[in-house]
TrEMBL record:
Upper taxonomic lineage: Bacteria, Pseudomonadati, Pseudomonadota, Gammaproteobacteria, Lysobacterales
Domain of life: Bacteria
Residue ranges occupied by any Glycosyl hydrolase family 13 catalytic domain in the UniProt entry: 47-474
Example GO biological process: carbohydrate metabolic process
Pfam families: Alpha-amylase
Segment forming the signal sequence: 1-24
Protein name (record): Cyclomaltodextrin glucanotransferase
Cofactor: Ca(2+)
Length: 577
């Protein structure tokens, strides 16, 4: 029988203590207990590359678009016969909306869609050739993904239907019980130079009226003349920066047209465009390449958005496994924008697709005085469209979801992961393969789907799992035990979570000072469990047990640690010293 060691508890609670001073406590010894009050934290997020999800309306496929530089269905051949594709494949607003029930019923409350803005109408002829295993190579590629904006006020023609514009899409999603997270880009537009002959749209920006306001003119950045050529003023003239010679974040990413963050016209254009899409129903933003723009830009952007929409939630992509670096975006002085939790993703990959134990996840939690402004508002995930999908067994995915939906943070799951779709495949090797209605309809037959639906719906119905403090009891080898506790604004709930990623059942044991005597509800089993002088509970192999009480832990040691977590949950330099 496994015992939970008080020494291990204390060690876990001290993770990252050295990162900053404690915020002056915003709760008295008997005050509120919660991880976050952000309303968006209640919603788990399902992420789709819209073009690759479901083709709900073949009438908008634009299959003849591009002429000799066609844009539809461009395979990337891989030696193992599992090909990628860099052309459009037909996914659209209708395909997502038609399957809103499928997504909601799995337990999600929001859908993150890739950028909707207009992209070029041809395949790119510059850059480096795309190969099965290549990265940041764009020759022959199209803007199916949406990140190559040319007019940020216009919806790309591949997405809407005659009877379904973006406003209709967001209205329909809300009616189905889902919020819309819109992917936005502030760093760049489309690829802009190295073309043998300049192509329409590439390196160009158009305003709300369709007038050309910026043009890279197929020139390398160093040949731009922003001072004397008005159409160059939108762009940086820095060029590509080699990592050995400086920060790569100071220069261009691949051949993408790099916006000049210091130009007020750039800010006004982008802020105006994204305010427009909020007006059309966007509920939250995911910010692409946030680290490639200076903090001052995003602070100004966040202040402008929140001056009109105070609770508007934003999280950015800072592709770095160093928590200290990505945490900077979460600080109030830099805009207070949450981020995707890349350090936790790295840990989850090692634990659920590798051989590491649950202790590896403990070092990524940063629950007390860590680098993040608030770790409970991070977007947690294990893979996405820019990296190989997690290469795990079915049990590994089940274990990953059991952690993702019970631990701190806002869960994000990439489309198809509910069935282990294209596991282990990289960007041009199938990561972004077309999913399709047939796979959606068959999804419920996957054991991963069934287990995900079970735990995600539990989170959706359990405030403690959405916003509660996390108090670890054990994170070691194949086993985890922790509390999630909330006492805030009329909601009082304690969830005791036990996870087992091992192949054998776990006879879990909690000592008397770690669990209150009395009756608990088994949230997944529907039975009552009685604790007296401790608790012994069986957890199935690759299983989860969650016990609930509408009360707070009464043991003095637990109560003291919860208030310590409450007062220390904020981190970074914005805390009081």
């Amino acid at each position: 029988m496994t015992r939970v060691l008080p020494v291990a508890i204390a060690a876990l609670l001290c993770v990252a203590c050295s990162h900053g001073g404690a915020r002056a406590s915003d709760a008295s010894a008997e005050g509120a207990l919660y991880g976050t009050r952000a309303p968006f934290a209640a919603h788990a997020v399902y992420f789709v590359v819209t073009d690759r999800f479901v083709n709900g309306d073949p009438a908008n496929d634009q299959r003849e678009q591009g002429g000799v530089h066609r844009t539809f269905d461009i395979p990337v051949r891989c030696a193992d016969g599992i090909d990628g594709n860099i052309g459009y494949l037909g996914g659209d607003f209708r395909g997502v909306l038609d399957n809103a029930g499928y997504i909601r019923d799995m337990g999600f409350g929001a859908v993150w869609i890739t950028p909707i803005v207009d992209n070029p109408d041809e395949a790119f002829t510059g850059g480096d050739p795309v190969a099965c295993g290549s990265s940041l190579t764009d020759r022959g590629k199209t803007g199916y993904h949406g990140y190559w904006g040319t007019n940020f006020y216009k919806v790309d023609e591949h997405l809407p239907s005659a009877d379904l514009d973006f406003r209709g899409f967001t209205d329909g999603m809300r009616a189905a019980g889902l919020k819309t997270v819109l992917d936005i880009v502030g760093n760049h537009g489309s690829p802009s130079w190295t073309m043998p002959v300049a192509q329409p749209g590439f390196g160009q920006i158009f305003d709300v009226a369709g007038a050309l306001i910026a043009d890279h003119q197929n020139l390398p950045p160093q040949q731009l003349d922003p001072r004397n050529a008005p159409l160059h003023a939108f762009y940086n003239a820095t060029g590509v920066v080699n990592a050995e010679k400086g920060s790569i974040f100071d220069g261009n990413l691949a051949q993408l047209s790099d916006f000049d963050a210091a130009n007020p016209a750039v800010f006004e254009y982008l802020a105006g465009a994204y305010e427009h899409w909020i007006g059309q129903g966007a509920d939250a933003f995911r910010i692409d390449t946030i680290a490639w723009m200076p903090h001052a830009f995003w602070k100004q952007f966040a202040e402008r958005i929140r001056s009109r929409y105070p609770d508007f939630f934003m999280f950015g992509e800072a592709f770095d496994y160093d928590a200290g670096k990505i945490a900077e975006h979460t600080w109030a002085r830099n805009g207070g924008i949450s981020v995707l939790d890349f350090p936790m993703k790295q840990a989850m990959d090692e634990v659920f697709a590798g051989t590491a134990g649950f202790e590896r996840l403990g070092s990524a939690l940063h629950l007390e005085r860590g680098p993040y402004a608030n770790p409970y508002e991070l977007a947690t995930f294990y893979d996405n469209h820019d990296m190989p999908r997690m290469d795990a067994t079915d049990s590994g995915f089940i274990d990953a979801h059991n952690w993702l939906f019970t631990a701190r943070g806002i869960p994000v799951v990439y489309y198809g992961s509910e069935t282990g779709f294209m596991r282990g495949r990289a960007e041009h090797a199938g990561n972004r393969a077309y999913y399709g209605q047939t796979r959606v309809d068959a999804g419920a037959r996957s054991p991963i789907h069934g287990a995900l639906t079970r735990i995600a719906n539990l989170r959706r119905d359990t405030p403690a799992l959405q916003r509660g403090l996390q108090l670890p009891l054990r994170l070691q080898d194949d086993h985890a035990a922790f509390y999630r506790v909330i006492d805030d604004e009329g909601v009082r709930q304690t969830a005791l979570v036990l996870l087992n990623k091992g192949d054998a059942p776990w006879s879990a044991s909690l000592d008397a000072d770690e669990v209150d005597d009395g009756t608990w509800r088994d949230a997944l089993g529907g039975t009552l469990v009685t604790a007296r002088d401790g608790l012994a509970l069986d957890v199935p192999a690759h299983g989860v047990r969650v016990l609930l009480r509408d009360d707070l832990p009464g043991r003095p040691g637990l109560r003291a640690r919860l208030h310590s977590l409450m007062s220390g949950r904020h981190g970074g330099p914005d805390v009081a010293h």
